[in-house]
Each structure stands twice: as structure tokens, then as C-alpha cells.
Amino acid sequence: MLTEDPAAARAASLTPVFRPTARAMVVDDCGRLLLFSGAVSNTALTGSRWFTPGGGVKAGETLPEAASRELAEETGLILPAATLGAVIAVSAGIWRADERQFLGVDSFFAVRVCSLTVSDAGHEEAERARLKVHRWWTAAELEQTA
């Protein structure tokens, strides 16, 4: 019978898993940014945080394809991937969840809408549990919030 080496198991759990995401900075005609609030549970952050619509890039997807899919799932907004244009910003960092480390690389697209009534009809089960509310934020509100 083969037993797992605890030191090797710990080292494997500390090796970050690469997780690229495609995210959208959705801004309406009033200049407000759409953000979702949801539960975050990992060793660095616990509680509720605000974040842009978006999520993980699936195998074989391009960044615009993933952003298009995530927008449809999380907001109900249908935009063809070809209309998203170029990535406008990238952020990266290591985070931990469920006893695993991840190297997240978030690629952001700019999306301008006249108005948008957010629909959660496309949310997956995990999103329904995690995404609690959404809100349109002005720049002044973002500057003043903790």
C-alpha cells in the first residue's frame, strides 16, 4: 500500500494553480461602474467583497470568448466576443481557497452600455450562492467607500 508523503502533499498544496480570468468593467451612460458583492472565503480575505463581472477562462476559450460568456451568465448582457476589443488592464496575484493556492491573472475588458437591467437567469449554482447583490457605483462613491 502506497502512503502519501505529508511533506510532498503540503508542497503540492502550496504550488499555485494557474487561473486566468476574463472580466468586464461595465460602465453605463451615467458613468457608473457595475460591481457585484459576494461571499469570499479564503485565508487572506473573508467576508463580502465587491468585484467586476467575469470569471475563469475555460479550456479552448479566448479571453474575449470567456468575457462574452461570463457577461451573459452573470448579467444577461449578450455581446459577441469580437465586439469586446482589446484587454484594457491586467492584474495578477496569488490567493488561496479550499486549501489550494491559485495564481490568478485577471484580464479586463471595457464595456459601455446605455443601460442594463442585470439578470441572474444565467447564474450557475455556485454563482447563485456567492453573488449576493449588484450595484452601479459612481466614481465619487468608489473613492469614498472603505
Distance between the termini: 53 Å
**Largest sheet: number of strands, sense, barrel closure:** 4 strands, mixed
Strand order of the largest sheet: 4-1-6-5
Report mean pLDDT, rounded to a whole number: 86
Instruction: State the shape.
Output: globular
Strand proportion, as a percent range, falls in 35-45%
Helices, by number, come to: 4
Run of helices and strands: HEEEEHEEHEH
Integer-rounded radius of gyration: 17 Å
Q: List segments where confidence is low: pLDDT < 50 over at least 5 consecutive residues.
A: none
* Total count of strands: 7
Class per helix and strand makeup: alpha+beta
How much helicity do the residues have?
10-25%
Describe the structure.
The protein has 146 residues and is α+β, with helices and mostly antiparallel strands. 23% of the residues lie in helices and 41% in strands. It is built from four helices and seven strands. The protein has helices at 6-14, 63-75, 125-130, 139-144, and strands at residues 17-28, 33-41, 46-51, 54-56, 89-97, 100-113, 131-137. Strands 4-1-6-5 form a four-stranded mixed sheet. β5 and β6 (100-113) form a beta hairpin. It is globular. The chain starts with 5 loop residues before the first helix and ends with a helix. 16% of the residues are buried. The model has no long low-confidence stretch (mean pLDDT 86).
